[in-house]
Amino acid sequence: TMAQATITQPYGTPEEYIQEILLGDGVTATNISYTGGLSQLGLLENGASVFSVDAGLMLNTDNALCDDFCADCLGGGVDPDLLEVANSVPPLIGQSFSVNSVNDLCILEFDFEAGGDSISFNYVFGSDEYLTYVNTQYNDIFAFFLSGPGITGPYAAPAGFPDGAINIAQVPESDPLLPVTISSVNNVTNAAYYIDNPSQQGICTNGYTSTFTAAAAVQCGETYHIKLAIADGSDTALESFVVLEAGSFSSNAVELQAEAVPFAAGGLENIVSYAEAIGLPDNFQYPNGENFPFSDWYANNDIAVTVDGQSTLVDAVIIEGCNDAQFTVIRSEAEAAETDTLYLNLAGSAQLGLDYAENFNQVIMGPGQVESTITLGVVDDGFNEGIETAEITYEYINGCGELISTTSLVVIVDPIPIEAIPATVECQTLDGEQELGYTDMVGYGPFNYEWAGDSWGNATMDPSAWTTSFDSVFVMTDDNGQLIDTHVIQLVVIDQCGNSIVHDQEVLYPVIFETEICGGDVQEFPAYNAGIAVSDVLHNGQSLINTTLGSTPLTVDAMAVGDNWLLESISADVVELQWSDTLTLVDTCGYVTKAFMRVRDCIIPNVFTPDNSGTNDNFRIRGLDGFAGSKLVVYNRYGTVVYSKETASDAEFELVWNGNFANGNPAPAGVYQWVLLRADGLKDSGELSLMR
Description:
With 692 residues, this protein is mainly beta. The chain folds into five domains: 6-251, no CATH class; 255-413, no CATH class; 419-508, Immunoglobulin-like (Sandwich); 511-600, Immunoglobulin-like (Sandwich), CATH 2.60.40; 607-690, Immunoglobulin-like (Sandwich). It has three helices and 51 strands. Strands 1, 3, 4, 7, 10, 11, 12, 14 and 15 form a nine-stranded antiparallel sheet that branches. It is elongated. The mean pLDDT is 89.
């Protein structure tokens, strides 16, 4: 659904609408008067992406709130000048219709003193009469009647302005000058200036014009009068309006308009605007503790935000290495005949030649040129600076000899850190399949992703493919269908600016593994990721947790964690020779892994007879599983090492000496000394008799 421009009626007097919305630099207004109902005036806002201007003062032939009834509209009215303007249009466009009356008049007029030698303002016309009543008598009409020193015109002017008034609302570049109505600007006539809107998306009107500028030469310091008027033509049905852009009624103002644009030098011509972007955080936060309240500022560029410890207005926000600041310098048409070089004063924490281009300090305007665009030239310098500012000020002498200053403040921030926010990992299926995903991405998106061998998403794709959340199913078992205990699934995220992160999503499962334990011993429970809580450990379907079964010489010691258990150790009763069977571990998702367990008699002998008789042929020390790196050393009576070996993994249960030297020759009968250095620091030793 397309966003809608908002229209409100925040003021109770016409004076407030003029002073608070319309007036800009170099103009002061007095003697404000109004003809019409107060409900015909309104404040339009949030029109930047859906209308020709972002904000402005609306004059309407009906209630400015679109569908509301206009209880105070005047109905029939008399204004000969408006009627004359309306009927001047048909012969200029080769038509023969005529407008027989003007009704529902909405007229704002005031005196003003100009601070320079010209005045101008921007406006947009819209009407519900589009396109049904084009070239018919039902042509609503508006005009801007200007009178004052040096102006002579055919229309009436107030007392004190004896030379009449002119209409400065005209179709651009028309010759002869053509007033603006639905018949002079539409899908056929002057179609380049017309925007059709039959479904009333963005704003409640069937069609409207692009932004026009009304301008005129004036004498500095003199008093002039302007009459801003609109009315229904030939009836009182179907509203029309004119929106006068906020702050645009000005005299000889030089403007500095700043905006963020793609960083073309970095090959990022296709970067999307902030309005279209996905993933931008509400606050830009940086390691040095600085932050910028981006969402608040973007929602209302006119609010003061804190930058460098000071509350200030910000015109544009630029991300280093991603976009750049573009300034449009606008001068009045009255000065357009001259070649001029406008010099810019630079200030702020960002440094000329380091953070932005060193030649950014002057603008050359040629004859006939009223606008010039310059780029700040911001680059990613690779330093963690957080938030910097560039303040650009232009000072000039207006037509009255007064020093006028206009300033634009740009905030320059380091690249926005990309953050991938994984979804909560739910249970794997009993087939060993696991759904993984991400609930959000933070950064300057749309993003490009590389995940599980698949690549998708970027700014050149259709916006319907842009996303910050997604999931996929992974097989977590090996070729034999056995659950693999540890998985690392890697996601690469690339933002619009070419910055990237690698996010490793680690998935761990408790998986039991085969081991041996000596009767009478206690050791860590034999499971990978044993720190993850489980549901149970079973033998023949019966739980071994904190319980001794008569038929099973094993007990699992565990700590309760809610309804589950955190496995701590496993202990074995003393057995004769050996006990072995399969234990089952059930995780909290109900997934089962199994492993073979042995309990052995691990008494360390002091005599052995390596005669290959099958009885007592080896000297062995058992119960070493879980202690990778445990070492057994055997010395002869002279202190010479005759045997040395250590366990290579936690799964290795015992160390065994067969009575031979390392070269395979039998060691002689005699008394030997053995030393065990267990991996956990335990040291044990004893004498051993080798008999042959």
